[in-house]
Amino acid sequence: MEGKFFNLGGSTVQSARLSLDRSKALVQYLTSGQAPFVTLVECRKLHKGREAVIIEVDCEVPQYRAIELKKREKIAVVNHPKDRRMPEARALRLDFPRTCVMHLNLVPASEPASLCLFSEPWAELRLRLTAIGLIERIRWWIAKSATLELHRPDQALEPFVLGPGQPLIVSNRLIETLLTPGASFGQFGIVNGSTNGITLFELRRNRRASASTKPCLAVSVVSRPHPHCVVNNMPGDLLDLNSMLEAVGYESQDLVTTIWQATEGAFNSRTVHEMGFLLVLVLLQREGTGADQRTSPELVAFVAVPSGSEHGLLPFANSLGVASKGPMKTIHIKALKDLNLMKLNVHTELGPASAALLSGIDQLPTKIAGIGAGALGSQVVLNSVRSGIANWTVLDDDQLLPHNLVRHALSGDWLGHDKATAVTETANSLLDQSTVTGIVADVVQPGEAGDAVANALRCAEVIVDMSASVAVSRHLAFHAAGAKRCSMFLSPSGRDFVMLGEDGSRLIRLDLLEMQYYRAVASRPELSGHLESASEAVFYAGSCRDLTSRVPQELMGQHAAQGVRSLRQFIGANEAVASVHRVDPISGQCSRVEIQVHRPIEIGQLNGWHVWTDRGLMEELQMQRQESLPNETGGVLLGHLDQERQTFYVVHHIPAPPDSEKQPTVYIRGCEGLRNRYEEIQEKTLKNLTYVGEWHSHPVGCACAPSGADVLAAEALSAKLEGEGVPGLMLIVCDGGTTCWMCCSRPSPAVAHERLEHNGQ
Q: Among the four 158, 315, 362, 615, which has the fewest Cβ within 10 Å?
């Protein structure tokens, strides 16, 4: 190769004299005849036990390229004793374009450029890196660099200064603030770590600084737009930093003048002695190269520390000359060398978008009203905020008590506080903006908070019930708010998680989903024992109502994770959902039981009672009628009574007992096994399904209306239930999907007809 090259020094040796395993493995590959695109030039022994294998590599570089990289480059592969460090790839060409090539390791300009080949830690990479893998990586690096494809479009621009540093945590809004002329930014605090040094951050609500540490005097400058290829060494002091910034240009005021004015202001306000550090914020307006033409503001920061801390920055202010008398003060720039300069690594706080990005999911800006900030609700809210589902209004009227800490997301710092307030504060501490609002109120009886509760529900796009209260769920089902809503809760044992969610049009309300859920619990073998309690509840205080279940946090955490997942799916779906997620308490394995949701059927008002059923039950009864023809058949109707709303939900049935009489014009229900089956269903559903009446079929061609015998039976049913203060229902299933409903109560039964269309309308 023609051209001038760096001399690595050391001594040239025969390959047989190499002692490092990676050097020998590389030479073996190069001389094997299996390396067509690379040529061995020479081997060298360097100081400190290092060895260099000099090679010429042929690269797939296009004829017209953005950066002048050669089709053949001379590279030194430098290996280190005991494999302590990653092999270095040094570009030996003196005119190698190091000022416009990105992804170079920072080395002195007097040394050959060092190619940054890998992003993985050497401890991981050394386990799998081979000689051929290293050579191919070098060829790939050169080819991609020549076409400006090495730096990905979504990758951050090259850093202005390399080197380790202490963390500086800032808000996402700080860059916008620094770009606004005349805008002021907030104060910065410091946390003293026990082993990891200091951390600086913007002071705001829910941020705690170390009490014994003095605050910072913060200054900021903005650079002119400039290319981002050149990477600088760490400046030795503030004067060095000023020289670096002068090389790229200031947008307005230079660093020295800015420091002078800030220090003079602190001196004149008699606060300079209270300042322990000088924080320098530099906003670099950096431009991409090649196809990447974006201008990306990059915040770099440094902290300058005085040698003595007793008087803060007062000695520095005196050395700088701000305390001098007279109208014309002189800046003593040598004072800028008196402070020890430390680089800071800037970390931006989480926002909803970055939280979603880091979670690997799409951000959901949906406005959510969450009712219940208990064990499940608190964890669902906080986990949702962590994943970018951050726009919540949390409603709860309870306080955090000691027994809650077993499985609540809040810490003991919040004992005695309102859960809604504490969860809101904790959620807002996770992000750099307050996206969560808390309302301390009972949703059913909000009292003085009535307007706030109504507004929260009215403005929500999704309402999530996590209260574990049937009363709250029913109240939400009938609330006038337009948002679709869901209910999530645990079984009494804490082993199962239940998700009930309305469809987008709210045709299947929460109360109707609740009833179909009860039917599944009563009839599905996969849900056996679902509503059983694994252990007896315990008292946590002196009142007879101070009872709590015994559920470990490991289960609650698993269910909360499922809750967030279910919520995210529910927000994006338009269909109703009902599912039970069952967890094995030993293995932790989770199984999902899907509950088919059927279209509800509103029968209407009968003697002041509203009657609801669904297509699932009606189709089942029609099928039993069809199978029994030409004889009549029937059975017992089961459902749920809501006394407050005077509503019957008819959702289940017990088929005709074996001793029933079935004839073409007669059906007389028997009793064999009926009590046992009924008690079994009551136990499975915690008595949420109860006896509501009887049903029977009419034969083909018979009118869908009560016969004389049916009227007598209805009167008998009315008399039987009169003592319980509720009416009974009688259902007649007839031809063509038609039904006749009778509300059996004194003085006379009311009748309604319903036609079940088999096309799903």
A: 362
* Rg (alpha carbons) of the chain, rounded to whole number: 38
Report pLDDT digits (tens) over 197-242: 778 887 777 777 766 667 788 888 888 887 766 677 788 889 889 8
3-state secondary structure of 352: helix
**Residue ranges of the domains in the chain?**
11-146, 166-349, 354-594, 600-755
Class for the domain spanning 354-594: alpha beta
**CA–CA distance, 634 with 669 (Å, rounded to integer):** 7
Q: What is the pLDDT of residue 760?
A: 32
Round to whole Å and give the CA distance between 598 and 512.
Answer: 10
639 within 8 A of 648, measured Cβ to Cβ:
yes
pLDDT of amino acid 351: 92
Query: Helix/strand/coil (H, E, C) string of 706-751?
Result: CCHHHHHHHHHHHHHHHHHCCCEEEEEECHHHEEEEEEECCCCCEE
Three-state secondary-structure class, residue 618: helix
Q: From the CB of residue 505, how many other CB atoms can be counted at a distance below 10 Å?
A: 9
pLDDT tens for residues 355-375?
Answer: 999 999 999 999 999 999 999
Closest CA to 281 of 339, 219, 342: 219
Q: Is this structure's pTM higher than 0.90?
A: no
What is the DSSP-derived secondary structure letter of residue 4? -
Q: Residue 110, Cβ neighbours under 10 Å: how many?
A: 6
- In 550-702, alpha helices (H): 553-572, 615-628, 674-684
Length of the chain: 761
Q: What is the pLDDT of residue 309?
A: 61
